[in-house]
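DATA CLASS: polypeptide
GOAL: derive structure tokens

***
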Amino acid sequence: MKRRFILFWCLIIMICSVKAQQTEKLYLSGTGNDNTVNWDFFCTAGANSGKWTTIPVPSNWELQGFGQYNYGFNKEENKGKEQGLYKYTFKVPAGWKNRKINIVFEGSMTDTEVKINGKSAGETHQGSFYVFRYDISKLIKLGADNLLEVTVSKLSANQSVNEAERKADFWIFGGIFRPVYLESLPLTHIDRIQIDAKANGNLNAKIAYTGDADKVEVELFTKDGKRFGDRFNTALKKGTQNITLGHQFSNLELWSTEFPNLYTAQFTLIRNGKKIHQLSKKIGFRTVEVKERDGVYINGVKMKFKGVNRHSFYPSSGRTTSKKISIADVLLMKEMNMNAVRMSHYPPDGHFLDVCDSLGLFVMDELAGWHGTYDTPTGTKLMKEMMLNDENHPSIIFWANGNEGGHNRELDHLFAEEDIQKRQLIHPWEVFNGFETTHYREFNYGIGNYDHGHNILMPTEFLHGMWDGGHGAGIEDYWNAMWNNPLSAGGFLWDFADQGVVRTDKNGELDTDGNHGPDGIVGPYHEKEGSFYTIKEVWSPVFVEKREMTAGFDGSFLLENRYAFTNLNQCTFSWRLKKLKAGEDAEFKTGKADAPDIKPFEKGKLKINLPADWRNFDALYLTANGADGKELFTWSFPIALPKDDARQLVVKTGSSKIALKEDAKTYQVSSNGIDLTFDKTTGLLQQAKNAKGIIPFSNGPVLQEGENNFKNFTTKMEDENLVISSKFEKKESFNTLKWTIYPSGWLKMEVNYFPSAYFTTFVGLNFSYPETEIKAVEYKGNGPYRVWKNRMKGTQFGIWKKDYNNSATGEAPWQYPEFKGYYSNMYWCEFIGKQQSFKVITDREDVFLRLFTPKKSKDTEYDNMSPTFPNGDISFMNGISAIGTKTQKPETTGPMGMKHVFYDFDKDPTRALNMTLYFDFSIDASSLRGGTTKQSQ
């Protein structure tokens, strides 16, 4: 028995010696806005101040009903000066005896003073976005209650911190906004691991440790927990606290945004054969190389960054987020086919970087400094805190020292000194370190400089969104130039999401501080704007060359592979032929196409084996899915043309005869129960009426950017049809209008016209229709999102039912897609009124439908967006207007944003613009509808 007892304890000792001590965590707060812990709280000023109560931690106190909201531009003296006093009682496990115990704050706004059991934990921490810790081993009582007291000052006592963080173009919050926890380590422990894992399989690491150990052992594990390669170890010299080690691995799966392969590197301190302390880091093997006057190479491949700027933000919790939010943000960016994100303008939550590692996004991590800078001592401390927390993420490929002049150049050398990977340092908005990153360059000025420059081109902010301007508007022109410029490394849009914050002091109103905050591609709660889909198409790594579905189409599409690491044979392609009949019974056929072998940056063909009857369908849809199975984009190709629909839908014949009456001012025409009145002088439609009453569609066509010089109207019968037409005269009546009334009651309008100027914002025909009467529209064309002249992509051809809304982009209620605006490639439209409906059909291609005039949101003082709309209420356009950005007029966003150019060809009527429309004002004008139709992509 005694021998068995001794053997048993030897086994226990052996097991204990094998199992290393881990760093243990004990959360005192919750982990994010979806998991909080209440602490005692006292706010010194503003709402709910002057009394002890409780507050969830982590949180920003404004979002919990305390203090005062203020935006960074707000200069009111008394704003943002409140303090928050926190108290929390906690127990420390008795098993933590003879261990080092830290208290860790992942983020606190702004100056943070910490006491444990009435004693200071250390100097007040200044700086909001950085992980900081205090060694409280000597201040805590094991197994008993301990009192944590924290005083947080929203405004820093260090003016440089305020200049760098608080006087900025974003919301300013206060409070302990990221998690707080205790960290327990053995007395001999690893303090820091710096890892450089290269694409060639070479793993280098620097390890700093405290205490005595004989060696450090390293193991690499795959995502499924299997050890990869050999375990290796390196001896430690007595009296040293740092070691550098290296090892070569083979047959690794590399990390990239397309294939974010991760490994776990496990580091163990060993003394006398016993494992003392063990730390694990998620790593990715990849090489980042910047080649002067050339570009940025990842794993040997030259990159184009398709990026966006992102704030750590959520409307109901301010800067307090969660891993769930990080996942949602990254998935949305990936859905837009982005591959990069810039941390604006401070380091993010650690879980956001974890998600960028695991899902695959390149990251530019940024030391705060908007237009102001930290002083050198403060900046040095905060930079090292950022580096210590973030340095091993494979997603991080750039560091940024401040933003737009907020660069303390005395800190620059620290990045190279502290970073084992020697990642490139960027000064956003500067020409610095071989990079041209200037923000918001006008297209002609910027591209002109790019074409004649020598630096790597990578604007860290371009196309500044606001309301519906920017982002998708202009991106096609910019991206075409960037893609084709060898020195371009792409760029970053401003910015990801509207900064709309819940105002607890205003009954939960979402506040963007006027036009300061609505800069996003998505809304505050990630509502997708039209630009979302434009970016998704323009930045698709599968580029599909435009082609027409003519009789000679053989099923071949020319593709360009714009991936960096993926062959298109790793993607999947499917197609769908569809007859666009309203209702659920629309016919369709589907199939898959063999993915072609097209290497990155090369071109090739995709062949679809279409059925023999493919031309009997209305549209072909082609979908590409990435190697991860997620949709890259679905392209739509009309097969039937508007003239084909018009031929089938327009009814001309009827049994009734047309009756014409006229007086000194009007023509009054009756046909098959439809009564029409036209102005005898101008030719404009004055009234349409059926048995149910008047349809309030009238006063058209009025030419936009053209003269309504229709004159000398005459009437005549052509077979059974009545024709009312003006006379062409080269000098005084060069624009012509012709009405044809059919026995069926249908009305045809033909207009030939010349714009009044060579350069025009838009051209087309306007009618009056009261907005109060509209209930919905159903149309065949591109949708469901509206378009601008410089934002035509991202829509899909189909039949769309849109109920009326009065939404304005970037404003409550953030209801998308919007109703009012321009829609492209209209074939027909049914206007569904509250009393009556009517439909309009065209036999012409490329007709734009204009629905009313959206609200013009408050622009900046420069009035750059200029979202211009025609007169009238309903328009049928040959050309529409572009939209600008917060920083640029429409015409400076590229060729697509410029005005239309038309020539009158000496008023040659054969060269006039033309518009042909057919109107059905009958009681059964809703016959096109039938059932439900799709309302979103």
Observations:
- The chain has five domains: 21-186, 189-283, 307-538, 542-638, 659-923.
